[in-house]
Amino acid sequence: MHFLSSLAVLATLATFTGAQNAPVAPTLDLLSTLTLRLGASFDLGGAVPFGNTVDVIPVVGGTFNGSRLSGEVLNLGADYRLTDRAGIIRPDAHLSLRTDDGANVYLQLEGAVQPDGRGLIHIKFQTATDGSYSWLNIVKAVGVSTTQGTGSVPDVVVIEVWNVTPA
Predict the structure, then answer these.
(1) Bridge partners of 137?
(2) Which residues have C-beta within 8 Å of that of residue 93, sequence separation ≥ 6?
(3) N or C: which end of the chain has fewer CB within 10 A?
(4) Residue 39 in contact with residue 58, Cβ under 8 Å?
(5) Distance between CA atoms of 12 and 140, rounded to whole angstroms?
(6) What is the pLDDT of residue 17?
(7) CATH of 24-165 given 3.30.230.10, 3.40.50.2300, 1.10.3720.10, 2.40.160.20
(8) What is the 3-state secondary structure (H, E, C) of the chain?
(9) Rounded CA separation 58/36 (Å)
(10) Are 161 and 30 in contact (CB under 8 A)?
(11) C-alpha R_g of the chain
(12) Per-domain residue ranges of the chain
């Protein structure tokens, strides 16, 4: 009888442990669509230690629209875009946003963009800790970017911003 009891306990533990170790994918909720208008770029004048070139691309405006987060992109940002030796574009953008109700939000974007303009971007928000958008300070967001325009620097970048939360 003791053997059967032990077997039942082991089976229960195995089921519990297996269920606990199974990975659970996080959920993605669309936070906002960010549309950035870009200005004329310039480079640092040659190869840099971590890649071929760094292009400085002014962000001259834009919009962001979502159910909880909408407003304008201010003419106060830039992308310090590294193109690495493999041709992968690595944005390092710093932006200032103003929500429709007047709150200021700082955005930092980093990631990897393929030569065809599609990319995955990590997005970090910062805003007043006592404001109505303080929840953004703990958001973990990813973006999927596409470009519009021709040439080595696009005229417009559109980023679908997704909030990543545990399931």
Answers:
(1) none
(2) 59, 77, 78, 79, 80, 81, 107, 108, 109, 110
(3) N
(4) yes
(5) 36
(6) 52
(7) 2.40.160.20
(8) CHHHHHHHHHHHHHHHHHHHHCCCCCEEEEEEEEEEEECCCEECCCCECCECEEEEEEEEEEEEECCCCCEEECCCEEEEEEECCCCCEECEEEEEEEECCCCEEEEEEEEEECCCCCEEEEEEEECCCCCCCHHHHHCCEEEEEEEECCCCCCCEEEEEEEEEECC
(9) 10
(10) yes
(11) 22
(12) 24-165
Task: List residues bridging with 27 in a β-sheet.
Answer: 165
> What is the pLDDT at residue 46?
77
Please report where in the chains the tokens 């620097």 appear, as a residue: 153
User: Does the pLDDT of residue 19 top 60, yes or no?
Assistant: no
| pLDDT at residue 51 in the model | 73
Nearest to 159 by CA among 68, 73, 41: 73
Note the pTM of the prediction, 2 decimals.
0.82
